[in-house]
Amino acid sequence: MATGLQSPARAGPNVSKSLKNEETETVYEFPPQSELLVLWAIRNGSSPGVYGLDIQRAIEESSSGNVNISVGTLYSMLKRLRKKGYVTSVEGNAPAGGGKRQYYSLTDAGSELVDFVDRFIHRLQCWHP
Fold it and tell me: What pLDDT digit, counting tens, does each position of 16-49 carry?
């Protein structure tokens, strides 16, 4: 039996893809979760940077094996992050005399973005209605 009432159409969440840093007036594009994981893994690297497979291992170990990023996905993501200006890479020698490797590190823009996201997450965790 029809009542004439219709339920409203369900819409996806209205989430902005950019955030404004109120302190510096900088607007950041909020990166996807997987890119944030990679940026966080790179942030803690030492000079000359972090090798790609070490990034993959850091994410897998930090998640107790629950999050795995395939090598193809990781290197595509690193390429995208480099295009966005968040990551830079240098070629270096592998330990123990192996072949050449790319080592990744955050640019100033990448460091600023990661710091901003950290502050955002902290504020969100502390927020109370």
Answer: 456 666 676 777 777 889 999 999 999 988 878 8
Cis peptide, bond prior to residue 48, ω within 30 of zero: yes
pTM, to two decimals: 0.76
CB count in 10 Å sphere of residue 74? 19
- What are the φ/ψ torsions at residue 103 (nearest 5 degrees)? -115, 130
Q: Name all domains of the chain by residue range, CATH numbers in brackets.
A: 28-126 (1.10.10.10)
Determine the 3-state secondary structure of 76 from DSSP.
Answer: helix
Six-digit token string for 123: 């504020």
- The residues near 47 (Cβ < 8 Å, ≥ 6 apart) are 105
- 102 and 51 in contact (C-beta within 8 Å)? yes
Distance (Å, rounded) from C-alpha 38 to C-alpha 54? 10
